[in-house]
Amino acid sequence: MVEFNRNQWILLGIVLLLLGIQLRYVQAFVLNERTTQFLAKRMQEVELASSDAGASMAAAAPVVKQRVEPPRWLGLALLSAGTVLAVHGLSLKKQA
Fold first, then answer.
1. Are residues 40 and 19 in the same domain?
2. Contact 66/36 with Cβ under 8 angstroms?
C-alpha cells in the first residue's frame, strides 16, 4: 500500500479546498452538446439493458444542453475535508 508523504497530503487538501470553493460559487454547470450527447447515449444503453421500449424515441429527439446543479452541502463538505487534510499535512514532520 502506498503511503502519502507530507506534500501529497497538503496538495490533496488544497485541491479539495479549491474544488469546494468552486462548487460554492457556481450554482449550476451547463454541459456542452458533445457531453450531453455522450450522457444521453450512455443513459440509452442503461435503459436498453432494462428493456425500456421508449429509449429509442428519446434518442431521436433533439439534444438540449444538460444542466447540472450540485447540492449546496457538497461545497461545504469539500471545503471541510480539504481543510482537515491540509492541516494534517502541515502537522506531519518533514522528511530528511
1. no
2. yes
Cα first-last separation, the chain: 22
Mean pLDDT of 20-33: 92
C-alpha cell at 75: 461545497
Looking at the structure, tell me whether residues 18 and 45 fall in a common domain: no
| Domain match, 75 and 64 both | no
What is the domain count for the chain?
2
**What is the C-alpha to C-alpha distance for residues 31 and 57, in angstroms, rounded to an integer?**
22
What pLDDT digit, counting tens, does each position of 77-95 carry?
Answer: 999 999 999 999 999 988 7
Residue 65 three-state SS: coil
Place of cell 438540449: 64
Domain extent at residue 10: 1-27+69-96
